[in-house]
Specification:
The protein is α+β, with helices and mostly antiparallel strands. It folds into four domains: about 120 residues, no CATH class; about 60 residues, no CATH class; about 35 residues; about 60 residues. The protein is about 60% helix and about 10% strand. It has twelve helices and five strands. Strands 1, 2, 3, 4 and 5 form a five-stranded antiparallel beta sheet that branches. Helix 3 crosses helix 4 and helix 5 crosses helix 6. The chain starts with a helix and ends in a 30-residue tail after the last helix.
C-alpha cells in the first residue's frame, strides 16, 4: 500500500513539473511569435502612462475626447467611464507587480496587445492597449543620435560625455544606456515611441461564480423576452382572420345578404306552419273520430309544402338553405317524408 502511495505521489510531481515546463515554453513561444519585436518593460511603461492620462479625467476633458479625440482617446475615456458607472470598480489603487501582472499577445491586423492588470477598490481591472509597429522609429532614433553628436562636437566633447553633462539632472530620462536614453528622450520631448498605441479596452475581472451568475441572469432575461415576443406574435396571428372583414366591404355585404336570406326563409317557413295550425283547429271533428291520425290532409299538405319550400329554397338565386327540420309551436317536427302504404 505504501509503495502505491509513493508511486502516485511521484507521478503527480512529474506531471506538475511537466505542466510548468510546458507553460514556460508556451509563454516563450508566444513572445517569440509576436507580430513585431517587443520590449516588455518599455511597453509596460508606455501603457501605464496611457492609463494615468485617461483613467481620471474631468467632465470637460471627457466631452472633448469623446467628441473630437482620436480612437485611442475615445476608447480609453469610454472604457474607464464604463468601469466606474456600470461595473462600479471604485477608486484606483495601484498597478499589480510581479508574475501575472501583465501579459502580451498578438492582436488583429498585425497589432500587439499589452494587458496591464490594475488593482481598484472593489476588483481587479484589466486594461488592454493595442499597439501597432512604428516603422519609422529607427530612423528617428538615428537622427536624434546624429543631432546629439553634433551638439557634443560643438562643445568639443564626446557624446557619452555630453549627454550626462547636459541631461544628467533629468530624472525622467534613462541614463543607464544609450538606447534607453534615446528611447526616453524621444518619448518625452517628441512623443515618439517604438510602438503606436491605437486603442484601449477596459475589462473588469470577474470570478467564475460571478460570470456564471451573470450568464444565468442574462439567459433568463433573454428567454423571457423570447416567450413574450412569441405570445405577442401568436396574438397578432389570431387577429388576422378579422382582416378580410375589416378591409373588404364586398365580403361584409355578401355575408349580410346571406344572413338576411336565412332569416327570411326561416320566417316564411314558420308562417306556413302557423297557417297549418288553423286548418287543424277547423277540423277537430275528424281528429276526434280517428285518434290514431295525428293530422288531417289539409295539415299534412301545409307541412309538406313548407318542407318542400325549405328544401328547394337554396336552388333559387339569393336564397339560403333553411334548417334540416323545422319545429312549430305545437312541437310538430318534420324529419322525413315517406309514401304511405294503403
Amino acid at each position: 500500500m505504501k509503495k502505491i502511495k509513493k508511486m502516485l505521489l511521484l507521478t503527480l510531481m512529474v506531471a506538475l513539473i511537466l505542466s510548468l515546463t510546458g507553460c514556460g515554453k508556451e509563454e516563450k513561444a508566444i513572445a517569440d511569435n509576436l507580430n513585431f519585436e517587443v520590449d516588455a518593460p518599455s511597453m509596460q511603461k508606455l501603457s501605464q502612462m496611457i492609463i494615468d492620462q485617461y483613467k481620471d479625467v474631468n467632465d470637460t476633458a471627457k466631452e472633448y475626447y469623446l467628441s473630437d479625440g482620436n480612437d485611442l482617446q475615445k476608447t480609453a475615456v469610454r472604457g474607464f467611464d464604463a468601469a466606474q458607472t456600470t461595473d462600479h470598480v471604485g477608486r484606483f489603487d495601484k498597478y499589480l507587480e510581479g508574475e501575472g501582472s501583465f501579459k502580451i499577445r498578438n492582436g488583429a491586423e498585425g497589432k500587439v496587445v499589452f494587458s496591464q492588470f490594475c488593482k481598484y477598490e472593489h476588483r481587479t481591472v484589466e486594461v488592454k492597449v493595442a499597439y501597432s509597429e512604428n516603422k519609422g522609429y529607427a530612423l528617428d532614433k538615428e537622427r536624434l543620435y546624429s543631432d546629439l553628436s553634433k551638439q557634443a562636437a560643438d562643445y568639443n566633447m564626446d557624446i557619452t560625455q555630453y549627454i550626462p553633462a547636459a541631461f544628467g539632472e533629468d530624472e525622467e530620462l534613462d541614463m543607464t544606456s544609450m538606447d534607453g536614453f534615446l528611447d526616453s528622450y524621444l518619448g518625452k520631448y517628441y512623443g515618439v515611441y517604438k510602438y503606436n498605441p491605437v486603442e484601449v479596452e477596459v475589462s473588469p475581472v470577474y470570478s467564475k461564480s460571478e460570470l456564471i451568475k451573470k450568464a444565468g441572469v442574462n439567459t433568463g432575461i433573454g428567454m423571457g423576452i423570447v416567450f413574450l415576443v412569441l405570445i405577442f406574435i401568436s396574438f397578432v396571428i389570431s387577429l388576422l382572420k378579422y382582416l378580410p372583414m375589416l378591409f373588404d366591404k364586398d365580403i361584409r355585404k355578401e355575408k349580410a345578404k346571406k344572413k338576411q336570406a336565412q332569416e327570411n326563409a326561416k320566417k316564411k317557413t314558420e308562417d306556413l306552419i302557423i297557417a297549418s295550425r288553423g286548418v287543424k283547429a277547423a277540423d277537430t271533428k275528424a281528429a276526434t273520430a280517428d285518434s290514431e291520425d295525428l293530422m288531417n290532409d289539409s295539415e299534412l299538405v301545409a307541412v309538406i309544402t313548407a318542407a318542400i319550400y325549405a328544401a328547394t329554397a337554396s336552388g333559387t338565386a339569393g336564397a339560403v338553405r333553411g334548417p334540416a327540420y323545422t319545429a312549430s309551436n305545437d312541437k310538430l317536427v318534420v324529419r322525413s317524408i315517406r309514401r304511405a302504404k294503403r
